[in-house]
Amino acid sequence: MLRGVYSAMITPFDKNENIDEKGVETIINWTIGKGITGVFTVASTGESWALSVEEKARLFRLTVAIVNKRVPVIAGVGAPSTRESIQLAEDAQQAGVDYLCAAPPSFVRPTQDEMLAHYRDLAQATSVPLLLYNIPMLAGNVIGTPAVKTLAKRLPRVAGIKDSGGDLTVLNDLLIDRRPDFSVVTGMDTLVLPGLLAGSQGAILGSANVCPELSLEVFRLFEAGRLQDAWAVQNRLTRFWLAMGLGSFPAPVKAAVELLGLPAGTPRRPVAPLGTEQRAALQRELRAMGVL
Hints:
This protein is α/β, with parallel strands linked by helices and 292 residues long. It has twelve helices and eight strands.
């Protein structure tokens, strides 16, 4: 069962926008050294939309090799078509990942019945547990809560959902009458503690590239019953999300990683890196959070 705090990893690029494999290794080792529960490669924060199928498969293999079974690895296999998602799932299984994670198809507008068929076919394509993934602000489509519960009931291989919609009511609804081994985790930095209070099993966060210690501390304090202390840390973590408005996603995350002295590179175009003023504002926020 998926539980804890996972990092939705960036994909470091060199000056020519190619994957920086040494940078990937540095980021993974730094993140694991912080005590993170696991890593999510080819995530939205990792610019999955900008990566080719071949690059994604390469990142699956690279991540599994670097992690070397120290923590679980989640592979992002969402794609506009079921055919491509299945191909990515097969590549991820061959690489040896522990979980698959797939956002709904984008650009087209599938019905909920078509969504059910898409995820059914994807879950049955491999033997790797599958996490559903709602991120409506980017994917444009949502797999509705009734469909999520139907898939969880019919397909044991559907292991959980990463909900990045930012709606605590939806998160709470997903937790009602859920299968006991079905994980519901948030993808929103602002909802780590509220999600845990509602009954979630943890979080998968872009902020874990920069300040994994904060979300891990929220989780630890919650489990210890120290809710007032947990809220104080949650409020620091919330500032990270607010700072993401300084640029197009995931440019602020990559800039924050570089401010820590870690390799990130610029985002792939058309997303532009932060300007001088935005970078200075981000630096001030990170200092206020106690990260720098």
